[in-house]
Each structure stands twice: as structure tokens, then as C-alpha cells.
Design goal:
Blueprint (H helix, E strand, L loop, with lengths): L7 H31 L6 H4 L3 H11 L6 H9 L9 H4 L2 H12 L8 H35 L1 H7 L1 H11 L2 H5 L35 H4 L6 H20 L7 H18 L24 H10 L3 H7 L9 E3 L6 E3 L33 H7 L13 H9 L20 E5 L3 E5 L1 H19 L24 H7 L1
Antiparallel strand pairs: 1-2, 3-4
Helix pairs in contact: 1-3, 1-7, 1-9, 3-7, 7-8, 7-9, 8-9, 8-12, 8-13, 12-13, 16-17
Length: 476
């Protein structure tokens, strides 16, 4: 009853744990003394055996005797040494073989007898310190089940005692944040030097516990975080005398181990997933007048279709475009030598549309026939000839156009001295003659020097140029 920290035996446990920590420090110091002095006899031994207790036992057994192969083999089963144990009982098989081989090739020298005696006493001191530490640890482990049953059930009696000693009691441990616990008891290792590829940085009391050691290395980092949270919960339960049988610690421990087991399980095989159904259906398009007009705006015109066609056994006409010497083929644009009098019917929905200010180079007839274009320099048959004929007053209806009647008979025949038989429109020819006569009267009829009737007419002199004849004679 009451506070656990007020019990006198609890203070004894705390002091025992502190004494165990002090013993560890003393063992390290004595081990350093042994290494420094025995390196004269066997300098390679400190790199072969790193455990202080095993190193002290091997040094006490080997001593200052000869290190040839026969003596080393005899020491493996001999008990004639200060410890009274064999070398084979101290080291395992691989370590024993390595020590035997290195001892036969070592370049060490024999030690003085007094110095050897001090080294053997230091080895016996290490063994005695280790024995006292073991006794204290067993006592602490046996009494931790009474003062912290849940914490002992969760993490073990040794680790629980170390954590209580570091925190200063159950009350201090219950108030400590769980994130601080993994760093407790961590010692900076000089062997790693500047290595940064260490899997777990904080290898403290929790990492050294038997529970964490039994977990695979790839899950230890997660396990330390899980157990750190549960340690604080168990410390609070023990501080308030709850679950005195340790059932809460067992439950939390089983929870953590079950969670770690699930993390180690392989994911269930869900089987191969079926491929999605192919999207073969066409998406629905908008219908109606607006959609039809949109299609017509981007449809290929008849002029482009004619450009894409090629006449059989005929050379394709080309025109220049752009700033360079590039050319563009015209295909069958303007080809009208197929024996047909009627022009190709132009689809008004897809024909090239020109503005009112830019009627093209073909005039009204070429717009009607669908052959208006911005192409320049094309002077072949077809639309070019029709526009040329229209400019000369020739009737173009019926000769491959759609203006007027399409019968091909609305025309007049006229004989010309240059081209022979032509189709002539009398009205257009009369209009052109009238315009030409008006231009001639405008530029040539009003001239002064070009109108000669009864001879050359001398124009009169202006008043400023006239000279008085009487005054001229008197002067002479």
C-alpha cells in the first residue's frame, strides 16, 4: 500500500542497479589496463577477442609461456593455470582455432615476472567484478516482479531495472515521454567512425533487451517504438498499484508481438486481375444543324480534292509559293480536256468562300464554277482561259461554267484574223469598243499639236511676248 518508492527494499533495488552500472565502468578500465600491458606478449589477441571477460580469462590461461603449436594444443585441455579452467571451455571452436594460429605466428616478447603477476591479478579482478554483477542482477530481477510486475512482464526484469534507475523511479518513468526512452543507455561506438549507414541509431536499454533481440532486424526500429509506448503505460499501472499480477504487461506484450507477426506475413495473393474491357464503342457525338455545320467547315473542299488527284500519263503543273523557290503541285485543278462540256458540280457547302472585297482572279464566272483561288502565275487551260476570255469580251457561258444557260448554245460566232473561229458576245464587245473610244477621245482629241486640218496652225504669242514694230524701226 502507498507509494512504491517509499518502500525500503525499493531503494535497495535502486542502489543495486546503480552498483551494477558502476561495475560495468570498472570492468572497462581494468580491461584497458590488461590490454596495454599484455600487448607486449601477444599484440594480436585484443583484435581477436573483444569481450572483456573472455579476454581476461585467455590472458590468465596463456600467461608468459611459449606459444608454439604443441604448447597451445596442450593448453586447450590443461587446467594448470591460475583460473583452473581449460582454454577450450572459455572459447568456442572458431575463436579457439584463430587464437591458436595467431599465437604460433605472433612476434611478441616475453614479459617480466612482476609485470605478468600484475596482469594476472587484473584478470582475476575482472572475473570477480563480473561475478558480483551477476549476483546483483539476479537479485534485482527476482524483486522486480514485486515492485513493477507489469513492466517486468513486458520488457524483462533487467531492462525494467535499468529504466527505473535511469528515470529515478516509477514516478519519473511514468512521466517520461515515450519518444525519449530508446535513447536511454545508448553508448557512442567509436568502431563505426563516420559511418552513417547504421540501421538503428539509438541502441539503448530497450534495444539490448531479449524481446527486441528476438525480432528480425528489419522490424526492430518499429518494435522499439511500440514497446516504448507500452513501457510508459505499464509504468503508470505499476505506479498506481494496478494489475498486481502482471496481466496488463502480458496483454500489451502479446499485442505488440501479434502486430509484428502481421508485419512479417506476406500479402495475400489476390490473383491476376482481369484486363479492362476494350473501349471499342465510339463516343456519342452531338447531332443537329450546329454539328453538321461544324463538320462542313472542316471538310475537304472540291478544290483540294482536285489538287490531290493525278492525271494518268500527264505532267502535273506547279506554282511557286512562299519566299523561297518552293513549288506546289496543282494536281488536276483546271483540267478540262476530258471531253465534258459541263464543269464539275461544286458543293456549295464545302466550296472555298471568299469575301466580297476579294473576288479572286477569276471574276464572277470563276466564283460560280468554284475555281476561284489565290494561286498566281497559272496560265493553263480551264479556269484561267475562261477568265482570260471573259476579259476580252468573249462569252464564257457554256464553255465549262455555271453562269447563265448550261446548254452551250447561247453564244455568237465571230471570225477574227488572229485566232480564227471564236465564240464572241456582241454586247460585251460593243461595250469594250465604247470604252476604248472614250479613252482615245479623252487623251488624244484635246491636243494642240496633234490636230492638223488645213496645215500647221501656229498658236498666237502671249501679250507679254509681243514686241511693238514702230519702236523697233525708230531705234534702228
Amino acid at each position: 500500500m502507498g507509494n512504491v518508492e517509499d518502500h525500503p527494499e525499493y531503494h535497495l533495488l535502486t542502489q543495486s542497479n546503480s552498483l551494477s552500472t558502476s561495475i560495468d565502468s570498472e570492468i572497462v578500465l581494468v580491461h584497458k589496463f590488461i590490454r596495454d600491458h599484455y600487448s607486449v606478449r601477444f599484440p594480436e589477441l585484443e583484435t581477436l577477442i573483444t569481450n572483456p571477460l573472455e579476454y581476461a580469462k585467455v590472458v590468465a590461461i596463456l600467461g608468459n609461456g611459449p606459444m608454439d603449436s604443441e604448447n597451445i594444443k596442450s593448453l586447450q585441455l590443461s587446467t594448470n593455470n591460475p583460473l583452473g579452467v581449460t582454454l577450450k571451455s572459455v572459447l568456442d571452436g572458431p575463436s579457439l582455432m584463430i587464437v591458436t594460429v595467431e599465437a604460433t605466428t605472433s612476434k611478441g616478447q616475453a614479459m617480466p615476472q612482476d609485470q605478468l603477476q600484475r596482469v594476472v591479478q587484473a584478470c582475476e579482478m575482472v572475473i570477480a567484478l563480473d561475478r558480483g554483477k551477476r549476483i546483483l542482477t539476479e537479485y534485482v530481477q527476482s524483486r522486480m516482479n514485486i515492485f513493477a510486475p507489469n513492466l517486468t512482464s513486458l520488457i524483462g526484469s533487467l531492462t525494467a531495472a535499468q529504466l527505473l534507475n535511469q528515470a529515478g523511479g516509477l514516478t519519473g518513468l511514468s512521466k517520461t515521454p515515450a519518444c525519449n526512452l530508446p535513447a536511454w543507455g545508448h553508448k557512442k561506438q567509436n568502431s563505426t567512425a563516420l559511418a552513417t549507414n547504421v540501421g538503428i541509431r539509438q541502441q539503448g536499454f530497450i534495444f539490448q533487451s531479449d524481446v527486441i533481440r528476438s525480432i528480425p532486424s528489419d522490424l526492430r526500429k518499429q518494435a522499439i517504438k511500440m514497446f516504448a509506448n507500452k513501457i510508459v503505460m505499464c509504468a503508470r499501472s505499476d505506479c498506481f498499484h494496478q494489475f498486481r499480477d502482471g496481466s496488463e504487461g502480458e496483454r500489451l506484450k502479446d499485442m505488440c508481438l501479434d502486430r509484428l507477426d502481421k508485419l512479417q506475413q506476406k500479402p495475400l495473393n489476390k490473383g491476376a486481375r482481369a484486363l479492362p474491357a476494350p473501349d471499342e464503342k465510339l463516343s456519342r457525338k452531338r447531332g443537329g444543324r450546329r454539328a453538321r455545320k461544324a463538320k462542313e467547315a472542316t471538310a475537304m473542299t472540291d478544290l483540294r480534292k482536285a489538287q490531290n488527284r493525278m492525271g494518268f500519263n500527264k505532267e502535273e503543273k506547279e506554282v511557286g509559293y512562299g519566299t523561297g523557290d518552293s513549288t506546289k503541285g496543282l494536281g488536276m485543278i483546271g483540267a478540262r480536256d476530258d471531253g465534258r462540256l459541263r464543269a464539275t458540280q461544286i458543293d456549295q457547302r464545302t466550296r472555298a468562300k471568299l469575301s466580297a472585297k476579294s473576288k479572286g482572279w477569276g471574276g464572277a464566272s470563276s466564283l460560280a464554277s468554284g475555281s476561284a483561288s489565290s494561286l498566281r502565275g497559272f496560265s493553263g487551260s480551264g479556269a484561267g482561259n475562261l477568265s482570260l476570255a471573259g476579259s476580252k469580251g468573249l462569252r464564257t457561258s457554256g464553255v465549262g461554267t455555271t453562269v447563265g444557260s448550261m446548254a452551250g448554245t447561247v453564244s455568237s460566232l465571230a471570225f477574227t484574223p488572229m485566232q480564227g473561229l471564236e465564240l464572241v458576245d456582241p454586247k460585251v464587245q460593243a461595250e469594250l469598243s465604247r470604252k476604248r473610244k472614250a479613252d482615245e477621245d479623252r487623251w488624244f482629241k484635246g491636243g494642240t499639236f496633234t490636230q492638223v486640218s488645213d496645215g500647221f496652225k501656229k498658236p498666237p504669242l502671249p501679250p507679254s511676248k509681243k514686241v511693238d514694230t514702230g519702236a523697233t524701226k525708230s531705234a534702228t
